[in-house]
Amino acid sequence: MIGIKSLLKHSAVVAAVCGVSFLMCGVTSCSEDDGAVPPVPQPDGATAYITRVLDFMPAVGQFTNTMPAYEEGDTQETMNEKVLAAIGNNNRGLISLGGYGGYVTVGFDHTIENKPGLRDFRVLGNAFYSASNPNPDAPVGGSCEPGIIRVAYDKNKNGRPDEDEWYEIAGSAHEDPAQEAWYQLAEDSGNDVNLYTDYEITYYRPAQEPETDEEKQSYIRWEDNRGNSGYKAKNAFHNQSYFPQWFEGDELTFRGTCLPQNGIDESGQGSYFILYKFRYGYADNETNTNNESSIDIDWAVDGKGQKVYLPGVDFVMIYTGVNQENGWLGECSTEISGVEDLHVLGEEIPTRE
Ligand SMILES: [Ca+2]
Ligand SMILES: [Ca+2]
Ligand SMILES: [Ca+2]
What we know:
By secondary structure, this protein is of the alpha+beta class. The protein has one domain. Helix content is 11%, strand content 25%. The chain has 6 helices and 19 strands. The strands form 5 sheets. It has a 6-stranded antiparallel β-sheet with strand order 1-3-17-7-8-16. It has a 4-stranded antiparallel β-sheet with strand order 5-6-14-13, with no helix packed on it. A hairpin with a 7-residue loop joins strand 13 (263-265) and strand 14. The protein is globular and about 60 Å long.
């Protein structure tokens, strides 16, 4: 799928991002419970994989309505079922979250335990490294399309992730964007290298699907809360609607953290884009076999960026974290192939120092 994705990603899609509103990071710290919560018992027969898909809303993107495929009559419920068929139960299919903000929320048949000193789960994507970056001195990169991860512990045991149960995993750029190896390179090439904790973007439903080239360039209007706006174009390679077809509203708004733009045209002529790797803590940012594709629940923070203690997580949400168009590659879009409980798999991966 990796190679296919890279071949499929084509052509300049002009601007940016979108969204249905999703939950803001919880603001209630549960740190006062530190030490008082007993270890989470693991039921016999628990599977390491996704067993539920609670929600799926990709942002506007060239793979929206195709990964998974929308068919006439589909609803949010049937789309969730398609996502489960793709990425649940170790099926290892692939879904695309589209541009910035697009998300999926998944659950499991048990609570993933937060074991001290260890990473607890892995998020599978389709990130890969470039073997032929024209820039010989560059740091590791290729197709790294980071998704931000949120986790929820079902503290009130109602079987749902309530708004005050969500916390965000603070990845490396949450800690300090300037420590990414490609930071200066990206700034020098004109990228926005800031991290925004209160980003919001709205996509507006197109009145109709475009036919002429001119209509394709002004396909889907977007606006963010930083004074930016523009149109998302339809490219020549993907002709389906880029606006989620089962969503009935006219405005799709996403809110969350927005990461520094990590894509750079290393050819200087628009032919070879490298999407550089963040150090840790994101989805679809690292190869699936690398330990940095796995997450320690202890990295969760509240809405103020303060660390929280969670005994485990029952729900994981992943949303595309970068708002950037990369020439013919199109928008930075996180892809997800699965989530795995490392403890059920018997894998012991130490946390970071
Ligand atoms: Ca842990
Ligand atoms: Ca709950
Ligand atoms: Ca990807």
